[in-house]
Design brief:
- The chain is an alpha/beta fold and about 650 residues long.
- Helix content is about 65%, strand content about 10%.
- The chain contains 26 helices and 8 strands.
- The chain has helices at about 5-25, 30-45, 50-60, 65-90, 95-100, 105-115, 120-125, 145-160, 170-185, 200-230, 260-290, 295-305, 310-330, 350-365, 370-385, 400-410, 420-435, 450-460, 480-490, 505-520, 525-530, 540-545, 550-570, 590-595, 615-620, 625-640; strands at about 130-135, 245, 390-395, 470-475, 500-505, 535-540, 575-580, 605-610.
- An 8-stranded parallel barrel has the order 1-2-3-4-5-6-7-8, surrounded by 7 helices.
- Helix 1 (about 5-25) packs antiparallel against helix 2, helix 10 (about 200-230) crosses helix 26 (about 625-640) and helix 16 crosses helix 18.
- The chain is globular, with a radius of gyration of 28 Å.
- The two termini are about 45 Å apart.
């Protein structure tokens, strides 16, 4: 056994020993002895000992009702601790030293250099790199935030114990903390006693952003830059935005009646509040750091003469962020805001411009090391998260829009829109989209279902451009499904273009995707508003349930391939949005291999992919794990574009 796996085994053994000590104190020696006996019998039974197997069955069959739960919890907790140890092993120092993954960015860049790839092409591809992760609320994540926090702290303890120069006293302190954390987890209720609301789910997602991605994104960008400098010989632009974060939390109402327009508005307010809170913490620390007195002439001309010029700028931002925090705190509490919108930060550039001016001035004045410290981290966070923390997707099922428009057409005497042919629907929608008069009567009272659709569109209309990333239509089956959403957004007064994204899910819908998009692109009004950019979402879970995994995978491939060819022919930039789940049955697969199996040129505009439920925690829940995840995604995207996979052979298509 190699040293790294010996360490893993030792960690599992230590965590199990501490769990046993906790159970002994909480439940008594008899329960601990019963659990140990079951564990040993299970191990021997698995090794082929028939006598142990029969004894195990007898023991399990005779457990009293009052002991069933402690025994079950003991094994559940042990599996949790084992998972923590295994997760830590992937980012441990020994693992990093022992393995240099062939899937890493550094290995990819090394190969590109050896193959004498075009430097210009590599630079261009790296600067177009886009990893957009869309965090979704999903019932497969059942672990409470209280326990997740304790698991993270256990992971940190394992990291500290990996240092071989610890004194016995230092090691004892860390092990006592580990023991206490395991005891706290044992005495914490694992099951939520109250069903989480959509707002609770959003708070969980933002907590993960705060505790992991806030640190991981700047670290990944530094790692990306260092790798590019080492192998490609150049530094990436400071304003590069290779990582974007979006969320369905608070915006995904498909099949969830609890996600309402009011919830969406509240989550958007909370995201602004949380972003202001995080940036305020960063800016407050930066105010302590930037005590330098020398600045460029341009900086002085723009911000005035001050003894400590950078602190002057940063402290002004601190005041604005404090006001921003108060403003959205009032909004969340349904109070009249104490400050006006003119006093707060609402757009990324209000943070970016003064801080980037500080950065450039420091560089010009010979303070590169200072500029590339905390200040650069904040600039990276503004690029990735912005003042909204994440963008929000809105998702709704296609028939809800059809029913809403049908209710309108019936009220104004045009008949039942839902019963019209596809050609008639398109003609009506295009006519209304081109009209300057409103369609919806002012004095009309719609049904609650239609009112909810219209209210959601009004909430979207109240947001600044860029806050809502896109509007996803699940079970999209026709061009009219897309045009209908555009009409509803227009009627709500949305003053700018929002990408409306059809989600093709079933086998039939995937096969029809090219035809539907061709119809859309043939609409002059539509080509005029999309500015030659289109996003299409490919569903993995429902297609697998509909057709089986193999047939669904081939249908997904064919649909993507057809859409890539169609959009290239028409000069449209296509972004494919992958609706993958975590498990194999929901479209999950090893990320690197999955991306390299996509059709050639399908990743040329980057990757947009859902991260669901418990997979968010496993792939992004720790900063070091998140950095590895970003590295893996970046490597696969760049390899797919610079060293594209071959197209399927003709005989494979038979």
């Amino acid at each position: 056994m190699t040293q790294e796996y010996r360490t893993l085994r030792n960690n599992i053994s230590m965590l199990g020993r501490f769990l046993g000590e906790t159970i002994n104190d909480a439940q008594g020696a008899d329960i601990l002895e019963l659990i140990e006996n079951i564990r040993k019998l299970s191990r021997n039974s698995r090794a082929g000992d028939d006598k142990a197997r029969q004894e195990l069955l007898d023991t399990l069959g005779s457990i009293s009702n009052e002991n069933i739960i402690p025994v079950a919890r003991a094994f559940s907790q042990f599996l949790n601790l084992t998972n923590i140890a295994e997760q830590y092993q992937t980012i441990s120092r020994e693992h990093s030293l022992a393995q240099s993954s062939s899937q890493s960015l550094s290995e990819l860049f090394k190969r590109l250099k050896e193959q004498k790839a075009s430097v210009e092409e590599v630079h261009k591809t790296v600067e177009k790199l886009l990893i957009e992760l869309v965090l979704t609320a999903h019932p497969t994540e059942t672990t409470r935030r209280s326990l997740i926090h304790k698991h993270i702290e256990i992971n940190k303890c394992l990291s500290k114990l990996e240092h071989h120069d610890l004194t016995e006293k230092e090691r004892n302190i860390i092990e006592r903390l580990l023991l206490r954390l395991i005891a706290e987890a044992w005495h914490t209720n694992e099951i939520r006693t109250v069903r989480p609301t959509p707002f609770d789910e959003a708070k969980w997602g933002f907590a993960m952003l705060e505790n992991s991605l806030w640190q991981a994104v700047p670290e990944f960008l530094r790692q990306l830059n260092e790798t590019a400098r080492e192998f490609l010989g150049y530094n990436l632009p400071v304003g590069l935005k290779p990582v974007h974060i979006s969320s369905w939390m608070g915006g995904d109402r498909d099949g969830n009646p609890f996600v309402t327009a009011q919830i969406t508005r509240k989550v958007l307010y909370f995201a602004r509040w949380k972003a202001a809170d995080l940036f305020l913490q960063d800016i407050s620390k930066l105010a302590d750091e930037l005590s330098m007195v020398k600045c460029s002439d341009e900086f002085r001309a723009k911000y005035g003469e001050h003894l400590e010029p950078y602190r002057f700028v940063v402290k002004n931002l601190r005041n604005q962020l404090t006001a921003t925090l108060a403003y959205f705190d009032d909004r969340l509490s349904d109070r009249t805001p104490r400050v006006s919108e003119s006093e707060i930060i609402l757009e990324d550039n209000q943070l970016w411009e003064p801080l980037y001016d500080c950065y450039q001035s420091l560089i010009q004045c010979g303070m590169r090391i200072i500029a590339n410290g905390s200040l650069l981290n904040i600039l990276h966070r503004i690029s990735c998260f912005g003042v909204t923390l994440s963008q929000m997707d809105i998702r709704q099922e296609s028939t809800r829009h059809t029913d809403a428009i049908a209710e309108i057409t019936r009220y104004i005497g045009l008949g039942d829109y839902s019963q019209w042919t596809e050609d008639d629907k398109q003609a009506f929608l295009i006519r209304e989209l081109s009209s300057r008069r409103p369609l919806i009567p002012q004095n009309w009272t719609p049904s609650p279902e239609t009112k909810e659709i219209l209210d959601t569109c009004k909430v979207i209309a109240q947001q600044k451009q860029g806050v809502i990333a896109c509007y996803v239509i699940s079970m999209a089956r026709s061009a009219s499904d897309v045009l209908a959403v555009h009409l509803l957004l227009k009627e709500a007064g949305v003053p700018y273009h929002i990408p409306v994204v059809p989600l093709f899910e079933t086998l039939d819908d995937l096969d029809a995707a090219e035809k539907v998009m061709t119809q859309l692109f043939n609409v002059g009004w539509y080509r005029g508003v999309i500015n030659n950019r289109q996003m299409v979402m490919i569903g993995y879970s429902d297609s697998a349930k509909d057709a089986g995994m193999m047939a669904a995978s081939w249908a997904q491939y064919r649909a993507q391939e057809a859409l890539v060819n169609l959009t290239e022919k028409l000069g449209i930039e296509l972004t494919l949005f992958h609706g993958r789940g975590g498990t194999i049955g929901r479209g999950g697969a090893p990320a690197h291999a999955a991306l390299l199996s996509q059709p050639p040129r399908s990743l040329k505009n980057g990757l947009r992919v859902t991260e669901q439920g418990e997979m968010i925690r496993f792939k992004l829940g720790l900063p070091a794990v998140a950095v590895e995840t970003f590295d893996l995604y970046a490597s696969a995207i760049l390899e797919a574009n610079l060293l594209p996979p071959p197209e399927p052979k003709p005989e494979w298509r038979m």
